[in-house]
Amino acid sequence: MAVYTEIGDDELRDFVAQYDIGAVTGLKGIAEGVENTNYLLQTDRGSYILTIYEKRVDPKDLPFFLGLLDHLSTRGVPCPSTIHGRDGKALRQIAGKPAAVQTFLQGIWPKRPTAVHCGEVGAALARMHLAGRDYPNTRPNALSIDGWAVLVDATAARADHVAAGLGAEIAREFEYLSEHWPADLPVGVIHADLFPDNVFFMDDKLTGLIDFYFACTDALAYDLAICLNAWCFERSTEFNITKARRLLSAYRQVRPVGDDELAALPLLARGSALRFLLTRLYDWLNQVDGAMVKPKDPMEYLHKMRFHRRIDGPGAYGLE
Description:
Layout: H1 9-16, E1 24-29, E2 37-43, E3 46-52, H2 62-74, E4 92-94, E5 97-103, H3 115-131, H4 145-155, H5 159-162, H6 166-180, E6 187-190, E7 199-202, E8 205-209, E9 216-219, H7 220-231, H8 241-254, H9 259-285, H10 299-309
Antiparallel strand pairs: 1-2, 2-3, 3-5, 4-5, 6-9, 7-8
Helix pairs in contact: 3-7, 3-8, 4-6, 4-9, 6-9, 7-8, 7-9, 9-10
């Protein structure tokens, strides 16, 4: 989340008037994240999230994202649901950009995730995967191999400005992963961005999953690999096997994981690390003036990529 687009008072009132959610009493920008503009919208009937879609979000994908939220929320997944206007539409425009209003979820995201948090996330991710099995729409992962190729080309000329030799290391990793990327793993709807700031807790109990704007149809185990990277490393970049064991065990208690998925985890984790290294590197090299957000350090994911490169099997993640 971030704030890239400002809204005038009259424009906001006209926009909210298209919904049956009351009169505007407050609007506060949410500065965390990097992708879309988000506001906490308050009315005399409650609190909501107003999202204005920016940057990498293709407007053609928005019906997939918004429909998925409604699908999952009706199946008990703790995620926002979309607010539909008086005309029945969930998607409309403000400031010349696509926008939507969603329900507000209670909770806070963990600044220092514990093994307990990791267990909650593993179980919730598995329940989300199961709930998404009958979602009728599909969306290819725009940030898989083909998307990485675009980012490799877009960052190659200046990658070494961030770290000496970075461009060549990225190129080698991309070539290897392109040749060895696993196929024929179980697929379904994945979140694809389930970082700690996209998960809310109250008293160590998970209360919400948010920010589904990278959701797509891909290998379910790839979502697990993303979570390994997002939740199971300390700030010093040291891998925490206790957190990994808790996350993976909790997931497997809800959704059994096949031997082929487990065997692919190290490679999927390398791919996940490369994906976030590339997007963070791109954002680092192409910062937006005036945005209420600081780009995230790409080097964190270089360290993670190197860690997974040394792994020869899923046992290194705490699995028996």
